[in-house]
C-alpha cells in the first residue's frame, strides 16, 4: 500500500491534464473530476481514476488540487452543497493552482478554516510546455506547515517552488508574473515586426538576441510561434486578458502605477475584441502586424 497522500484533482484543462498525469507518474493515487468526458478518459488512460462529481472526487482525499480558469470557477467548485468545502474531510489540504484574484484566495482560506480544511494558493508559470515537462514555477501563499506538507507533491509538478507569504501572496506574485510575461511578449512581437520589415533573417536575429541580454524564457518558449505564426494555445489570450485585469486592479488597490502594463493590457483586450481570444498569447504579434499595416 502506498503511503503517499490520496489526491483529488479538479479541472483537467490544458494545464490540469498533464499536471495530474505527472502526479500519477510520481506514484500518487489521483482521482479527477472535470466537465469534459474526454479529459476524464485521458486521466483514466494515464492510470488515474475518474469521478462523477466533485463530492465523489474529494470525499476520501488527503489533498485536493484545483486548476480552473478564474475566480468565478474557483468559487463554483469550492462553495455550495456540491462543492469542495462541504464534501472534503476535515483536515484535508486544498491547493488551488488556478490564477485568480488575491482576495478570492484570502476568502477561500477563511471559509475553509471554518470547516477545518487548510488551503494554499499555488498558481504556476510555465505554460503547457512547463506543465508537460514538470518544470513549472510555483508561487505559494499560506502557512509554512501546510507548505511543508505540499512541497513533495509540488516537486512532481515544478522546479521552482517558493512560499511567498500568507494567503493571497501566491496570487499576487502570479499577477506580477503575468505583467512581466505580457510586456515581454509585446516587446518580442514588436521586435519581430521591426526585423522582418527591415529585411533581416528573422531566425538568425532571434537566435542571437536570445543569446544576449535581450534573451528570456519568453523568447525561448515563443520563438517558434513567432517564426511559424503557429498560435495554437499554450496559454490563451482570453486567460491573459483575465490576468491583466487582476494585476491592474490589484495594483490600483495598493497604489502602484503600471504605465507600460496598462498599455499592454489594452493591447491584449484589443486582440481579444478582434476575435483572437482563443489563440496563444504570442498572438500579440498579430496585433503589432495589424498596427503596422499588414492584413492578418
Can you walk through the features of this model?
With 296 residues, this protein is an alpha/beta fold. The chain has 14 helices and nine strands. The strands form two sheets. It has a six-stranded parallel sheet, sandwiched between helices. It has a three-stranded mixed sheet with strand order 7-8-9. Helix 6 links the parallel strand 5 and strand 6 (118-121). Helix 9 crosses helix 12, helix 9 (169-197) packs across helix 13 (259-276) and helix 9 (169-197) crosses helix 14 (284-291). The radius of gyration is 20 Å and the shape is globular.
Q: What's the story with the biggest beta sheet? A: 6 strands, parallel
Q: What is the 3D shape? A: globular
Number of strands: 9
Kindly name the structural category.
alpha/beta
Short description:
The chain contains 14 helices and nine strands. With 296 residues, the chain is α/β, with parallel strands linked by helices.
Features:
three-stranded mixed β-sheet, globular, 296 residues, alpha/beta, 9 strands
Topology:
Elements: E1 7-10, H1 16-25, E2 30-33, H2 37-45, E3 49-50, H3 54-58, E4 63-66, H4 71-78, H5 84-87, E5 93-96, H6 102-113, E6 118-121, E7 124-125, H7 127-133, E8 136-141, H8 144-154, E9 158-165, H9 169-197, H10 202-210, H11 217-228, H12 237-254, H13 259-276, H14 284-291
Parallel strand pairs: 1-2, 1-4, 2-3, 4-5, 5-6, 8-9
Antiparallel strand pairs: 7-8
Helix pairs in contact: 9-11, 9-12, 9-13, 9-14, 10-11, 12-13
